[in-house]
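Here's a chain:
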Amino acid sequence: MPARQFAFFDLDHTLLPFDTQALFCNFVLRRQPWRFFLHGIFLPFALARACGLASTDTAKRAFNAYLWGMPAGELKALAREFAATSVERWAYPELRAEMLRHKHQNRVLVLNTASPDFYAHEIARELEFDHCIATTVVIGTKVPLLPRLPRGNNKRDAKITAMCADVPGVLELTDAERAKCWSYSDSHADLPLLEFTGNPVCIHPTTRLEPVAKQRGWPVLRPARPYGTRWGNILHMVMQVCGVHAE
């Protein structure tokens, strides 16, 4: 029986042109605008992170303050609607085509993202991934002020550790089998994920990743984006965090 092959996809700026944390924030604030004022809780944490006084994990926990007190059932319903509407609208057609190609070639599709699991799993379900690895956020019955991340931020080598532990068959892959697998990302932080497979593909690679891709001869895809520059991306992100971005 032939070994199963895998295709691993990052999410933010890979499947979609945006940071989905900001995009989901926009989605929520357009329905509950009063939550914008809860960003005041996040602001000192953001400043502390910029000054090197707070970790990325702490800042990530604090960013979710705009969801403070939301019942878990309501959060799940919003995440499901977000996946079915905003994500479907913004996903790159070229990447959807890549996913379809891998499905037809009987590869197992894995979404492996640093995004919070409360909406990442809904996105994976909507886009018909076989498995989803994401940053685990402890919600309980209502979103706490600073929700815990018991496994830390799912980034860099943590992505490899998590999918080897949670996706059946990944840990057992031989070098020859990994050579027939695929991986997709935009970020230098995902070098461990890109190097894990024999077929890495870069999507609008960052300035740190682009020279690596060029040196190693990795394919680069540049699907059309709703912005042309890094500053355009930042402007969209600010609008999303403020809840004024078009859905």
In short: Residues 5-241 form a domain with the Rossmann fold fold (CATH 3.40.50.1000). Residues 23 and 84 are 13 Å apart (CA to CA).
